[in-house]
Design a protein that fits this description.
The mean pLDDT is 75. The N and C termini lie far apart (62 Å). This protein has a two-stranded antiparallel sheet. It is mainly α. It is built from two helices and two strands; from the N terminus they run ααββ. It has one domain.
């Protein structure tokens, strides 16, 4: 019985000390990350990456839309609907990458 109590006490002490050390280390990591993110060089690189990603996405969208519009419709539909609309946004403001229904397919109420 004493062995079980000793084991439980050791486990409890280890848990409390580990949780405290874990919280302190987490706070150190968060503070360092905020410091790093606030550096002007990091902000400049982040802005450049965002601009590059935006231009690549626009170019990809244009390529896909031009490829789809130049393809012959197989169902006799004369309207040209882009298959991928990268500018669609959800209610949260994030891009959803909405997909238009295939030519000749009925729109689903559940989509």
């Amino acid at each position: 019985m004493i062995r079980k109590l000793t084991l439980a006490a050791g486990f409890g002490a280890g848990y409390v000390l580990g949780a405290k050390a874990g919280t302190q280390r987490y706070e150190q990591i968060v503070a360092k990350a905020r410091e790093l993110a606030g550096m002007p060089a990091v902000q400049e690189v982040t802005g450049n990456i965002q601009q590059t990603a935006s231009s690549v996405a626009d170019k990809a969208k244009d390529t896909v839309n031009s490829t789809v519009s130049s393809a012959k419709p197989s169902t006799g539909s004369s309207t040209s609907t882009p298959v991928v609309d990268l500018t669609a946004t959800s209610a949260t403001g994030y891009e959803t990458g909405g997909v238009a229904p295939m030519a000749g397919a009925a729109a689903s109420d559940t989509a």
